[in-house]
């Protein structure tokens, strides 16, 4: 998996000084190095751009790496709402989105994402693209909320669904969240309101389209 990703990165990605600075700012602020991989970030940009999504919800901001990738997909016309547990991470992400030129198009909601999602549902908010990349234990809860908040035809993308390859490879070292991801993938695959597929980029991304009624 690692070899495959290095190959994809080397062939399909160009030097990206802005995103490299984001990675540096994350290190400098002693935050964990758990942003999406460069190719996974490029896939997010392409999915937002191809789908024409303009109202994006992200669950798990960290330092804004994936936020910038998502915002690049909608460019000047679109908005990102990003949910992040930690105030200081949201501040770092906001600063990086501002450097990238998207400062006026992003709103951060801090605290536990489940509470923010309930608030968005209460306010009858709707989104046409979702990116789930926070605490794994809540992935299925997040998926339920995303479906509730989705415009018909919306895309829901979830990261880390291969759990380092351990969901598929019995010889791979199991991760704490291997079984959680197996269950999440099965739910996304069998859900009557979703059309889903797993794309093995980075640590794996499940892409689900919310069916139109
Ligand atoms: C893998 S990182 C996100 C990486 C980011 N999407 C990127 O690629 O640039 C996961 C983030 O989820 C946040 N998080 C963890 N539990 C959360 C919760 N219950 N509610 C909201 N955010 C949470 C963490 O603080 C962390 O910043």
Automatic annotation (TrEMBL):
Q: What is this protein called?
A: Methyltransferase
Renumbered to this chain, the signal peptide range is none
Q: Which SUPFAM superfamilies has this protein been placed in?
A: S-adenosyl-L-methionine-dependent methyltransferases (SSF53335)
Q: What is the originating organism of this protein? A: Bacillus nakamurai
Question: Listed GO molecular functions?
Answer: O-methyltransferase activity; S-adenosylmethionine-dependent methyltransferase activity
Tell me the superkingdom of the source. Answer: Bacteria
Q: Which GO terms describe its biological process?
A: methylation
Carries keyword Transferase? yes
- Keywords carried by this UniProt record: Methyltransferase, S-adenosyl-L-methionine, Transferase
| Keyword S-adenosyl-L-methionine applies | yes
């Amino acid at each position: 998996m690692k070899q495959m990703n290095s190959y994809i990165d080397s062939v399909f990605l160009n030097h990206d000084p802005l995103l490299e600075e984001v990675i540096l700012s994350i290190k400098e602020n002693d935050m964990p190095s758990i942003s999406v991989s460069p190719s996974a970030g490029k896939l997010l940009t392409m999915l937002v751009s191809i789908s024409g999504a303009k109202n994006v919800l992200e669950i798990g901001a960290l330092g804004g790496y994936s936020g910038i990738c998502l915002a690049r997909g909608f460019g000047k016309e679109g908005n990102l709402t990003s949910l992040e547990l930690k105030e200081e991470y949201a501040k770092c992400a906001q600063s990086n989105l501002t450097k990238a030129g998207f400062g006026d198009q992003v709103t951060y909601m801090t605290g536990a994402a489940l509470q923010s999602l309930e608030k968005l549902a209460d306010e009858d908010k709707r989104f046409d693209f979702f990116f789930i990349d926070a605490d794994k234990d809540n992935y299925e809860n997040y998926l339920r909320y995303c479906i509730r908040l989705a415009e018909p035809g919306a895309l829901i993308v979830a990261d880390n669904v291969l759990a380092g390859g351990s969901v598929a490879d019995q010889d791979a070292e199991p991760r704490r969240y291997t079984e959680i991801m197996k269950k999440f993938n099965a739910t996304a695959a069998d859900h009557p309101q979703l059309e889903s597929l797993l794309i093995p980029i980075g640590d794996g991304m499940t892409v689900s389209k919310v069916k139109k009624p």
